[in-house]
Known about the structure:
Blueprint: H1 5-27, H2 29-40, H3 44-60, H4 62-94, H5 98-111, H6 117-126, H7 132-149, H8 152-157, H9 163-184, H10 197-208, H11 211-241, H12 247-277, H13 282-301, H14 308-318, H15 324-330, H16 338-364, H17 377-411
Helix pairs in contact: 1-6, 1-7, 1-9, 2-11, 3-5, 3-16, 4-5, 4-6, 4-9, 6-7, 7-12, 10-16, 11-12, 11-16, 11-17, 12-13, 12-14, 13-14, 13-17, 16-17
Amino acid sequence: MTTSRTNLLRIFVPFAIGYFFSYLFRVVNAVLAPNLVADLSLGPADLGLLTSTYFLTFAAFQLPLGVLLDRFGSRKTEACLLIFAALGAFIFARAQSASGLVAGRALIGFGVSSCLMAPFTAYAIWFAKERLPLINGLQVAVGGLGALTGTAPVEAALQITDWRGVFTLLAVLTLAVAAAIFFVVPDRKPEGGSVGLRDQLRGMGRVYSSFVFWRIAPWSVMSQATFLAVQTLWAGPWFRDVAGLDRTGVAKGLLMIAAAMIAGFALLGAVAERLSRLGIKPLYVAVFGMSLFMVVEALIILEWTVLTKPLWMLFGFFGTTGIITYAILSQSFPGNLAGRVNTGLNVMLFVTAFGGQWGIGEVINLWPTSPEGNYSPAGYKAGFGLMLLLQVLSLVWFIIASLMMRRQKNKI
Length: 412
């Protein structure tokens, strides 16, 4: 359904700002990590756990979220959940221990869990189908701006206040966004009957029992989870401990990754769409991009510090390639299961990102910390190497599964 320009602003802008803060919350600890460690005496495992908790609660709420969106609509659902995100930010700002930080971070992840799915659901109701790729792409791009803001601008804010002040401000702004969504966005629920939790689970069962899904999902999930685990936390400490950058240099490095990520989201999807018109399947683009991502990771693990900037920009660019598999898998199932395909991938992705981010911290913790508080470069090499190994194993499975599918088709 088409809308006036006024309605476009009323619908898109509040939801886009919500996703902006969702991504800002996701990445901000990469800059604040030294402050958190210094103030609360955190080890790398503690840092990994508290930051990755965002991913766990985010993933845990994906199934109930679909039911809430069907029953109450995007406006009410996201506005309500963002109140919990604001509460989580306030708890995080006041925390005096690692457990307090974990509790606040958990509420933040829960509170922003609808910031992408709710807008996508609303846009499908309000906008014509031919406009959805553009609107959805702009939504993701605004999230990338949140990732940019979580780097050098946050570092600049630390010259005025401390990390507690940053999170207090985020709490207030998140409440304002919740109010804007509730009072500005027009209300309309999806047409047709609501899908209950039992139906959601039944549909998920069909997705998870499909060999088509499991052929590519493990590699896609491991690729994206590695990118999220590193970009949203461990890239910052790596710049400090391996590349030897100061606070300003770390923030600039994270800014480069975020800028490259935005470019990746914008360009790789467009390239896949254009090549598909020429008969080249989007799967080939995904396979090529995720393979290059692994090569970039290997070079980073080998500590080619002379190429630090270009390698990490390539990391940000090709780390977005796995998102193409959402469209690939959605088109491999009946239309009424498309949402549950995306949800199924989302659940796996964010649970894996939680485990990966925490696991890297546990691995780094196996090496002693320097008197200056820096982590051992060998720890990063082992932690990042473990994530790369899991991607290699996922690639091997993809090759085996593809050969199995091809033989099955030949028999038929």
